[in-house]
Amino acid sequence: MSSRGRFITLEGGEGVGKSTNLAWVADHLMHRGLEVVRTREPGGTPRAEAIRGLLLDPTGEEPLDADAELLLVFAARAQHLARVVRPALERGAWVVCDRFTDATFAYQGGGRGIPPGRIAELEAFVQRGLQPDLTLLLDMPMEAAQHRLEGRLDRDGGTRDRFERERSDFFEAVRGAYLARAAEAPQRIAVVDADRPLAAVQAELASLLDDCLESWG
Ligand SMILES: Nc1ncnc2c1ncn2[C@@H]1O[C@H](COP(=O)(O)OP(=O)(O)OP(=O)(O)O)[C@@H](O)[C@H]1O
Ligand SMILES: Cc1cn([C@H]2C[C@H](O)[C@@H](COP(=O)(O)O)O2)c(=O)[nH]c1=O
Asked: Does the structure show a pLDDT above 60 at 197?
């Protein structure tokens, strides 16, 4: 096995099951004897979580400018990469992250309409070539995912954050941008049909992970 760890990201729209499956992916890898760091974006360090708070807070009179939103996402990412992701990969740990830069192309690119080239410039500046080794894109129709999200909010007594309050055309654009990105990078991004019972989704995730474990040695 290489001395550098591996970087695995989970992506998808709201309510598709990322958090549920992130925990499961981390357990699956730990059972194979790997050191696993489980984290998320935006966030993953105290200061990056504070930026997450700014991004997700739905209250207040002042709308957040789309360019400011993009820069906040990358500011949080720079902090997260410096404090958590790069050190973990350098010591040989596997990092399993709930969302990363594909989310920026999907939400700020597809959803807000920021040109992908501008996002790619910030990606190059902040990541300096670092990319996930594998991205698991959980995909399902937006209405069904919204139904799941409603169920979770009802059960947990939560309220919708700033992104979750967007309109359905925003979520359709996010889904379209994710799928377009997967079509551009099929060797890295595996599209998993999330509109199935959890056991079926996780059987496919296990197969994808075990194939990677074998091919990465
Ligand atoms: N395959 C599945 N079948 C049925 N329900 C599921 C499935 N996967 C997840 N759920 C349920 O759907 C809800 C949303 O799942 P989860 O919170 O993991 O989604 P998420 O993608 O992390 O959401 P968010 O985008 O808000 O972070 C939860 O109540 C979860 O238990
Ligand atoms: C990384 C990243 C995230 N977002 C948005 C997408 C989600 O609505 C929230 C994060 O909350 P969740 O619990 O993971 O659903 O942030 C974004 O717009 N751009 C990004 O790069």
From this structure: yes
